Amino acid sequence: MSDPTGKYSITMPRDIAEAAKARSGPSGLSAYVAAAVARQIERDNLNELIAVAEAEHGVVTEEEIHSLRDQLSQARREQAQRGASAA
């Protein structure tokens, strides 16, 4: 994170704060919390994008999701096989 930083005071449940502190490692609690907030913002943005797409094109069905996951899995297997063949 090379952007300028600011100092903020937040309140959170003690058990969550202690668990985050224990997992933060050498980068520290601030970096751990900043990464978690960044991930949440990405999820929020994605949810907004999904809502807009669904409003325009309709809701994606479970069948479509499974089909696309299967296609992705197949593509990954094929890519791994090509990589193994090239090595």
Write up this protein.
The protein has about 90 residues and is mainly alpha-helical. The chain is about 75% helix and about 0% strand.
Layout of strands and helices, then pairs:
Blueprint: H1 14-23, H2 29-57, H3 62-86
Q: What form results from the Cα inertia axes?
A: extended
**Number of strand elements:** 0
Radius of gyration: 20 Å
Mean of pLDDT: 94
Largest sheet: number of strands, sense, barrel closure = none
How many separate helices?
A: 3
Percent range of helical residues: over 70%
Helix and strand sequence = HHH
- Residues in β-strands, percent: under 5%
- Contiguous runs where pLDDT drops below 50 for at least 5 residues: none
- Structural class per helix/strand content? mainly alpha
**End-to-end distance, in Å?**
36 Å
Q: Which oligomeric state applies? A: single chain
Q: Briefly, what is this?
A:
The chain is mostly helical and 87 residues long.
Fill in the keyword field for this structure.
mainly alpha; extended; single chain; 87 residues; 3 helices
